[in-house]
Structure formats: structure tokens, C-alpha cells
Predict the 3D structure of the following.
Amino acid sequence: MRRISRPTRPIDSLLSSSSLSRPRIPSSPCRVALTPCCRLLPTAAFSTSPRHNGILDGKKDKRKDQAFIRKWQKRLLGDSEPIGSRVDPYDPSSPIRISAEELGEEQEVVGDSELGEDYEYEPASTWDTVDSEGNKGTLEIIGGELWQRKMQEWHIQERHLNYMTLKDEAERNQAIREWYREAKELKIPIESREEARRWLLAGIAEWSDEDAFAPGDKMTGEGPLYAAFRRAVVEVHMLSQNGYDPSKMAYPSLEDNVAAIDCVRLENTRNGTLRISYTESARREILRDILPAQEDPTKIDWTLAEVDSAQEVDEVPDDALEVVDEAVKMESSGKKAASAAAKPPIKAKPFDFMSNRPVPRTKPAVESPPPAAEVMETPTVVELEPVPSPAAELEASATASSEAVAAMQTAVRDTIERLAAQSITVQKPTDPEPAMTARQERELIEHTKLRDWNIKFAISKRLLQLTGHRMSDPFLGSSSTLGFLFAHLVATTSYPAKPLHEQIANSTPLTALPNVTIHAKRLTPLDKEKPLGRFKVIEYALRERGLPLYGSLDPTEDSVVKRKNPQSLWKDHIGLYKKFMKQAEEAREQIEREEREEEEEEEEWLRDIDERVEEGEIRPGTAEEAEAVAKEIGVKK
Amino acid sequence: MPVAALRTLAKPQNGVGAFILQCKRLDFHYCDWAGSSRGMVDFIKRDLAKFAKQNPQIEITISPRPHRHPVIKGHYINGMDKPVCVRNMARAEIMEKANLLRNASGEKLKRVNKPVTSLNESVRGIWSPFHGAKIQI
């Protein structure tokens, strides 16, 4: 094939390769004259034709040359086969014979193995992975040395689990020392005893349930569950109202402070928000338990932190109302009378443009004197509950009270305006409030709307800690009210549900009827034949022929194990099979025994004969005699 | 000669003298796990007792059929049985199906083209081309 030359490039010299390489019929004598001398000139810097590379010497150069060509062809044209590549492979100059290295192609370099080049596989002689001295044994472990070491550590930590039960300081130090020594023996890199202690505790944390977030035993029963639910709700709302993020709380204490939480009253307001009323001491007690131990409750900043706008939408319509109602109610119930002074001062809230609360257009007559007078009186009332706190606290609360009074006056005015527009029955101060049962309370708060995701999450987190039950995300998402949330909690505890036959087994209507039969298991064809009486006949026939009653013809031990309910299907058959196998084995043993006996007899007889031969009583017979005897007996040959 | 009476036997008809319900047994199968059995489970818990009491002549069995759709199977005196799948049906719909099976006989479902089904012969006789008005042969 004729090689098609490259078009000339502007950078090329005037006397281009194309004109030279192309075999042209010289048209004019002058041209002919020109060409021979021009041929000698080295031109066409970018030409890859062999002529202009100036190398046409030995074999080696040819190959190099081909390699160079091929390399550039590949770069420019891609990996497609160039024209003229299908050449004779036996030709030493063919491009096929050029190795990849010479072409300059990338070559895969196999990585060095971890074992090294000198590694030779040796089969292990023992089962030991670790020697008695702690050195590596003969049997290799898959997973590597790191895993092996980790496993050793875990085993040691497991052995020292009782560390947490040691009450004596000395005993605990002794345990740490032992652990440190063991770690050193196993060459686990632990530098100090303090590090050893940390390792040990880390291991114990993995194993023990004491520090687990959720308790090991999950709570059951609607009563305890409701108590836990109530507690979670109270704590979460109390924290959020006091400006703490309830979902980020660690809730370290799991001890029941039932008394304080019992004092908290939960109610539902008309627009579906939760109203919590509590005394100051109860609140302090609860917060002291929830908040981290380092934080002294007396030093807590009682001013409300900036509440989220989302929360504010829920709570703003009711806050003022809440305060007034609380004041009224606290006044009425002698036990729970608390000074408004001790309540945290309410920030003057700016007008919320985004909220939907109704703003009364006309200002009705303000009936301030009587309620205001009551409210005015409360700051002077001393706290009934004894407060074991320093005087500074009282001073602080006193100063706060004056601010609180002013704020409360404005709040009262607002609420009375609203109250005038609506019809609300204010509780008579003389009536004592009856104690609410759990059921009543539950009914009350059932319809409390849960719109804030943060609070929902915080409640579910606290519930996990108290009950051990996880609320799944779809349940959390679909619960729009407290009632739903509690129902889902109860549903979680009752999973997995009882099968239907268990549920209706005790129900009298169905079980009492004579024409109704309830089966606990799936009915099989045999279950139809058994009551008819046909099964007896079938069973007899099968046993007669040695066939299996249930299942396939070849019941090996393995197939029995693989079946889902071997007991139910193979109950009869296993016994029969074992019996047959036993019989077969016995028969086999019998045969073997008989054979052995025969052999022994024969051997004895032969020995006997040998003895007699030795003694000379008998002499070995000749072949002819043997033949004669055989004929006599009639043995065929 | 007087007209001899036809010798006939009394033809028994179910319902003329006594009535025997053709359905002798109803099997209710459900699944504890599958969602298509929700209606059936509801029906068994709430309506079946009443149905069984109203039909003391029918033998009723309740048994699980795991990982299958719920089925009501009716067994009849003529030996036939009719299974009806009640997957994803509500309690009331299942009650309808149960009643349907209870009222059925074991016969195969046939389309009836004629307005009257009777054992009696026709009163006016079967038509023939020779016996009619204005026929002249």
C-alpha cells in the first residue's frame, strides 16, 4: 500500500517533505534536476516518515524507529490500528514485536504483598494462634494482627467487668494494676496506669448496661408507661419554658422524683396547647435533677431566654392567660399558693405581626380593681414552702417581684379585654380543686397539639431513657397530639401482636358455640383425614411398606434439621426411622458377628490342623487325595 | 272406559316439605401477618359469632393460612366446594360473601336465559307446525 504523506505544515521549510516523498512524474527537466539534490536535505521537522528521521541502520534502530512511529500514531490517532499494522509477526522489524516498555505504554505494577517476597506458606502444626508466652502461634488468623489484638483486649475487659462493682478504692486500684500488667504481657501499647483505667472503663462501657442510655428491661403496662410519659412531657415542657433546649439535655438522673413531678398539673387549653402549672419549689427540684450536676440551681439565670418564633406562636396567646389563671388558682388552693414574686419576670413582648391572635377593636370597660387588688396582694404573701436557701435568693426574688407586678398588671388588662369578648367561667376561689386521676388527666391532655418537632423529639428521647422503647419516625411524624403519641408508645410495647387464635380463644361468644372450631395451626390434608378416620388406614398401609408418613421418601438427618418445623411434621416419623435404622444396624452387627465367629472358627481349625501337623498326627495331603475327597463330597470345581 | 290416572310418585322438592340448607360447612382462613386479611380478622372478631349463631346447621371452622390471602370456603351437600377470596374486603363485604355462600347450592353457576324454571310440563303443549290456526295442508 502506498503510504499517504502528510500535508505540509506552515512551519515546515519551503522544500517540504510532501513534494519530495511523493513519487511524481517529473513534468519538467528543471524539476528533475532539483529533486535529487533536495532529497539529501533533512526537511520536514514534523514528519514521521522514516526517511526523514535519518535512521535507517541496523535491526535495533529499525525497531526503535517503529516504536517511535507507533507511539506518535497512537497519540495522534488514538488506539485504533493504523494502516500497515497488520504485518508479518515474524519479521523482526514488525511493530507487533515491539514490547510495551519500548513503546512507552503504562504498565501495571503489582503491589508488594504484606507478607513480603520471601514468604512461603507453611501449614500449621497446632491449633494455637497465640503461644503460651504470648507470641504468635502457628495458626494464622484471618483479619490481621490488629483484629487479633483487639479481640485479646476485649477478652481481658470482659474478665474485669466486675470493676464497677468494687466499692473499695484499693480494690479498684488493684483491678487496674492487674489489667495494666496483662496488657503489658500481651504487648498492648498502654503507657500509664491512667490510660489502663480509661481502657478498662471503655471496655466496660461496651459491655455493661449500667451506663446504657436505655434500660435493658423494657417497661410494660399502661400505668407505668403513662407515668413515664407524663414525666417526660413535664420535664420537656419545663425545660423549654425555662429557656433550655430539651432535646440537648443529658437527663443524667434516672431516680424517681415522683413527688415533685406529681405536683405539676397538666391541662389542655382551648386552642390545643399544653398548660403546665407548678410551684416554685417543685420546679427548682425538677430542674436540679435534670440540669447538669455542676450547675447550681441557685445561680441559674431565671430570666427567660429568647424563645423561638415557632414556639412563640403557640405560647403567646396563652401566656398571659396562664399567668392570670395560675394566680387565681394558686390563690384558691391553699397548698399550692406560691408567691408571684418568685415567678420569673415576663419580658414585655413586642407586638407580633405574624400571629393570628384576635386584637379587640374596641376597649370595653376595664374591671381592674378587684382582680388587680388580688394580684397586688400576692407579692406580699410569703412562700408557704420552706426554702432552704440563702438570703440573696430572697432579695433577688424581691427585686424581681416589682418588675413582675408591673408586667402582670399590663398582662391582666390585656386578658380582661379578651375575656370580656369571650365567655369564660372563672373558677370560684372558694372551691377546692379535686385531685385528678391519671385517666382524667390523660383525657384532658389527649388533644394537646404537638407541632414543635424539637419537643416531640425531646419527649421521645426521654421516653427511650425511661422506658427503653423506641418511637419510630413514622409514629413521631404522624402524631399530631399527645394522645396519639401515647397511643403509639403503647402500641410499640405491645408489638408483636397476639395471633388471632389467641385473641379469640378466650372470647366466649365464639368458643361457646357448638358449631364453631378454632384451629391454631394451618390445616393440612392429613388434618382432614384424621377426624374422618381414614388416616388410621393410611398409616397402617405406609408402615407396612416401610414408607414415611410425612414428607419425602429419603429422610436423612440433615433434611430433618433443615425443615422449618421438624417436630410437627416428623414427630412420628423420627421415631419410626430411628427404630428401623436401629434394627438395620443390629442386623448388620449380627451378620458381622457371625462372620467374625466363622472366621475365628476357621482360624482356630487351621491352627489346630497346623499343630497336629507339627505334632505329626496328620500329614498334609497331596493334590490327588484332595481331588478324590472333593469327588466324594461332590464339590464342583 | 275411564281415563286411567298417571302413575306418578311424589317428587321431592327441597322446601316444599322440609328445607335442608345445602351449605354444610364454611371454612374461614386468615393470615396474621398479611394486610389483605385485615377485614377478615375484623369479621372473625366481631361478626362471625352472630353469623354462626344464626346458622347452627352450618359447621364453621377458623384456621390460619399463613402468607396467603383470606378465603371463605363453602362445602355443600352434593360434594362440591366453593372458595371465595375475600382479600382487601371490609367487614361488611365479607359478611355479604358469607351469606352468598350460605345461600348457594353446590351446583355450578349457570346462566338462566328463560324466565321460568319448572319441573311441570307446559300447559298449552309444545308448538308443532301442523296444529295452528289457519293451517291448510
Summary: Strands of chain B lie at 23-30, 59-64, 71-76, 81-85. The radius of gyration of chain B is 23 Å. The domain at 23-103 of chain B is CATH 3.40.30.10 (Glutaredoxin). The longest strand of chain B covers residues 23-30.
